């Protein structure tokens, strides 16, 4: 169970925090990211290929905004996950779900700011025992003109602890 009560977590719902500043979509980082996820599509490294496919610049892979979890892009004072101290024990926390909604492709040259809002918290009984606590976080990434580029929704789950092994006697 989180170190914070459900009522404390519910009081945070609707709170927003700037969680990424000056995320510059750089050509080298796009290529590295594509390589890291095993995508060798030349659109992520060759301007001519990107232009032939109708892009104004080299696009970033769809999940590139996950790099904002790295400290390099966090504003000063944002140390915890997406800016929220949920009281979840990292040993019993898992990434439950991820969804993206794009207004347009992320392109090399974009400079993004991410603002994360805690949109929901709730508890459910787990099928293998224990109570699970869910937190749903939505991050909007806007470009230098303030235009929305992508919205990312992540669900984090803290399980009730380790599952006891049953031993046959």
Describe the structure.
The protein is built from 3 helices and 5 strands. Strand 3 and strand 4 form a beta hairpin. It has helices spanning 6-12, 27-36, 47-52, and strands spanning 16-24, 93-102, 111-125, 131-142, 148-158. It starts with 5 loop residues before the first helix and ends in an 11-residue tail after the last strand. The chain is α+β, with helices and mostly antiparallel strands. It has a domain at 6-25 and 70-158: Thiol Ester Dehydrase, Chain A (Roll). The chain has a 5-stranded antiparallel beta sheet. The model has no long low-confidence stretch (mean pLDDT 90).
Q: How do the strands of the widest beta sheet line up side by side? A: 1-3-4-5-2
Profile the largest sheet: 5 strands, antiparallel
Order of helices and strands: HEHHEEEE
CATH-defined architecture of the domain at 6-25 and 70-158 = Roll
Mean pLDDT: 90
Q: Could you say what the CATH topology of the domain at 6-25 and 70-158 is called?
A: Thiol Ester Dehydrase, Chain A
Please mark out the parts with pLDDT under 50 across 5 or more consecutive residues, or reply none: none
Q: How many distinct beta strands?
A: 5
**How would you describe the shape?**
elongated
> Whole-number radius of gyration?
19 Å
Question: Looking at this structure, what is the CATH superfamily of the domain at 6-25 and 70-158?
Answer: Hotdog Thioesterase
Strand content: 25-35%
Pfam family, one: FAS1_DH_region
Protein name: MaoC family dehydratase N-terminal domain-containing protein
Domain FAS1-like dehydratase: 11-151
């Amino acid at each position: 169970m989180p170190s914070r009560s459900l009522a404390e977590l519910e009081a945070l719902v609707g709170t927003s925090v700037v969680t990424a500043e000056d995320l510059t979509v750089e050509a080298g980082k796009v290529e590295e990211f594509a390589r890291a996820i095993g995508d060798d599509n030349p659109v992520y490294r060759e301007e001519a290929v990107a232009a032939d496919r109708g892009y104004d610049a080299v696009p970033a892979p769809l999940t590139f905004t996950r790099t904002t979890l790295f400290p390099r892009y966090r504003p000063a004072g944002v140390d915890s996950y997406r800016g929220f101290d949920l009281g979840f024990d990292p040993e019993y926390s898992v990434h439950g779900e991820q969804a993206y909604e794009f207004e347009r492709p992320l392109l090399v040259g974009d400079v993004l700011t991410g603002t994360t809002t805690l949109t929901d918290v709730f508890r459910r009984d787990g099928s293998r025992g224990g109570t699970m606590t869910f937190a749903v976080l939505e991050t909007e990434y806007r470009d230098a003109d303030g235009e929305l580029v992508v919205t990312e929704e992540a669900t984090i789950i803290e399980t009730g602890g380790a599952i006891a092994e049953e031993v046959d006697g």
